[in-house]
Specification:
Length: 485
């Protein structure tokens, strides 16, 4: 590795697992496929359901918290699962994560009000924070980086099923039965995953790993992200954009994180893996990941509402029309995996992908709206998002070294979730503060006629903001040092 910051580990010596056969890889992959699938499908599955939930509970403007509450809990618990996985073994921690996720799904399926649903989503997020990061860490324990790229086709198949089928399944379920069945469906999947993960060999414990002994750091981090997301989601709705509250909440966030930074520098076993953020490559990778998920979740969560309010599509149709975005993302990931497996260089690809996404999002904000244009530009935006996730995961795990694999995986998962939560909250605040007064029952009812200019303008402003964020992500990706895996 040519860059001095790119190190295989604290010892300076390579510490990677031995190459595995295809049969050995499949044994690992079939164990983690369900947790990874549920972690990937969760947001796309619910995207088309959100308008229907808004109609049932007669509340559109608080529906962003269906996603935000999940992502808030997910972001807080991500580093916790990474640390616990390093200390107590990833298999054991994964079993706990799955059990909490299932309990949250049960609460959501029985929710009598929107507040109960949001609480259930938060509980689900407490478990979901470990699904993806622990799955990737389990694979990282057993499969060397170059082979992970070579087996990218398996991951592409997984994400194809999750991302492409998720919107269609969600749209069809809510159009024909009840959105509650989306949560009921998780229960047998989690039960099967618990059985399959339980068959893996007992995870290796590292008693010298710090675990989570920094409760103050955990509390400061949670306070910082909660005030940030509440302030972002409330601006323009609960209080005006130009008000003292708009300054107060970001100020409280900055204060909490400044105290967190000073506290973590002195703590012998910090909750937040601040030592990894001293690596320039990881800092820039995190900014790239945050920008990507900011744009992706904004598009996934609000595109069905845009289609239903602006284009008068039905619930099932809006879910199906979201699928091209995810299909483009999957194709981008497949092509990226093939390129990285042959070149061993993941760094250049996110730069080009996010540049394409920025152009597509800018076009969504500027061109006259119709369904065909929206679907086509959504596909190209997704195509640009595709290269980011597989490459950033490889870069982070390579520069951190195997003994910090869990912490590195969790910090990328944290960046992914922070970007998604921020995008969902801020985009919702922008859109709902610009929307005219509407009857929530308009959602989910197909019709015809010209789209309201005020409704179109609200979403176009949001697309413009997303285009700017994608361009920033492309710039951050261009500054990541080259790494060979």
């Amino acid at each position: 590795m040519t860059n001095p910051e790119v190190s295989p580990g604290k010892s300076g010596q390579p510490d990677q697992p031995q190459e595995v056969s295809r049969a050995e890889f499949l044994q690992i992959y079939t164990a983690v496929v369900l947790p990874m699938f549920m972690g990937a499908v969760d947001q796309t599955l619910l995207a088309a359901a959100t308008p229907v939930i808004a109609v049932e509970f007669s509340d559109l403007y608080n529906t962003p918290w269906i996603a935000t509450a999940y992502l808030l809990a997910h972001a807080t618990m991500g580093p916790v699962y990474g640390r616990f996985g390093d200390r107590y073994g990833r298999r054991e921690v994964m079993l706990v994560s799955l059990a909490i996720f299932m309990f949250g799904a049960i609460v959501c399926s029985l929710a009598p009000s929107l507040n109960w649903l949001i609480a259930g989503r938060a509980l689900q997020g407490l478990g979901g924070g470990g699904l993806m990061s622990l799955s990737m860490a389990l694979i990282g324990d057993m499969v060397p980086p170059r082979q992970r790229a070579r087996f990218q086709g398996y991951f592409a198949a997984l994400f194809t099923g999750a991302h492409v089928c998720g919107p269609m399944i969600g749209g069809l379920v809510v159009a024909n039965v009840s959105w509650r069945w989306l949560f009921v469906g998780y229960i047998p999947l989690v039960a099967l995953a618990l059985w399959r993960i339980g068959l893996l060999p007992r995870g290796r414990e590292h008693k010298d790993a710090p675990g989570v002994r920094d409760v103050i750091g955990l509390g400061l981090f949670a306070m910082g992200i909660t005030t940030l997301l509440f302030g972002l989601s409330s601006a323009g709705l609960r209080f005006p954009w130009l008000s003292w509250q708009t300054i107060l909440f970001p100020g409280l966030t900055a204060l909490a994180w400044a105290v967190l930074y000073m506290h973590e520098r002195r703590h012998p076993a910090p909750f937040f893996p601040i030592e990894l953020l001293r690596i320039m490559a990881l800092r820039r990778v995190c900014l790239t990941v945050m920008s990507t998920t900011f744009c992706l979740l904004s598009l996934v969560f609000y595109l069905p509402i845009y289609l239903q309010l602006g284009m008068h599509t039905g619930v099932g149709e809006s879910g199906v029309l979201l699928a091209p975005v995810m299909l483009g993302m999957v194709i981008g990931g497949i092509v990226t995996g093939q390129i990285v497996s042959h070149t061993g260089e993941p760094q250049p690809l996110p730069k080009f992908g996010l540049s394409l996404s920025a152009v597509a999002l800018l076009a969504l904000a500027l061109v006259p709206a119709n369904v065909a244009v929206i679907v086509t530009l959504g596909f190209f935006a997704g195509l640009g998002f595709g290269p980011t996730m597989p490459t950033t995961q490889l870069i982070a795990q390579t520069v951190a070294g195997r003994e910090r694999l869990g912490a590195a995986t969790s910090i990328i998962s944290l960046a992914r979730t922070l970007g998604a939560a921020t995008g969902t909250a801020l985009t919702g605040a922008v859109i709902y503060s610009l929307l005219p007064d509407i009857d929530v029952k308009q959602l989910g009812s197909s019709g015809s006629g010209p789209a309201s200019p005020e409704i179109l303008q609200a979403f176009h402003v949001a697309f413009f903001i997303a285009a700017f964020v994608a361009a920033f992500g492309a710039f951050s990706a261009s500054r990541v040092p080259r790494v060979r895996v």
